């Protein structure tokens, strides 16, 4: 196992690469969608629709990417993702028409499937095995600042040079920052936690030779999909929901800005206090913060908007970590990447559809759409409760 000092350097550098990856892909439309749409003479819905299709691609390639990381480690995949991100962003910047623009987002979608959290988590697990929990928490802590760092930079570049040049600059950042980090700072897996392909006579397997679709996998997939549909829906519509609940426009925007700091604060809590407990406890707590906050907001109205966003953001922050640490605790490190790919697939489908579906629900039910998101989170909580700690420990061999 690499020395602790090497692990710290890896967490800092890979966390930086993840911040760049998230900030220049997932968070890019929030700043550049409007000028992009204006440039092509279409509505903003077109840009977000193309982005949604790009997100769907990540669901299709995730299992294959995870399986490759299981076999060979993640350095090659992450390195390739930097090149793919750069190509996709360059295509966006150079796109003469909407078709090439959509192709650029398709390339970025492939990069998202290769280079964001699931691939990073699998890479760390291939290196550190069961001891990857702290490293996973560390990179999510750093990448929690992706929007904080990249939104202002994207806005400044768009204002000074236009959205196309912003895309070119971000493409260059992937070549000058992300690529060297992924190629030279990520160590190759030792082979201790990577697995060879099964003999032809055996069916495809997950961890320790077990079936990939079993009861714990189904419960985890349900819980992760439900919570991330909620997270994506709120990311798209949070200020409007807060206004409908009685907050002023200024208060709604100010409260919505607290989601990011709340996520980071919750991850610090996970890194410090909750590390001593099984990750099931963290996950269960994270699934109830949104329903509690929603109930407070619906009862007390606008003045409660700040408390709601803090509780919602805290749950998001911890669930991001749970996506990486809980499968590791339950199934162990062998076959981890492939399981992560399958667990992410329903989540990606849900994330792609969530903004559109919740826009319709918002028109009909207003702020009471939070009853739907609360039901999703409570469903996730039930799934986590059904996934007993004793069962998880038995599966992991602890």
Automatic annotation (TrEMBL):
The chain crosses the membrane at residues 45-65, 77-96, 102-128, 135-155, 218-238, 368-387. InterPro entries: MFS, MFS_dom, MFS_trans_sf. Signal peptide: none annotated. Residues 10-392 form the Major facilitator superfamily (MFS) profile domain. Keywords: Membrane, Transmembrane, Transmembrane helix. Pfam families: MFS_1. This is MFS transporter. It comes from Ferrovibrio xuzhouensis.
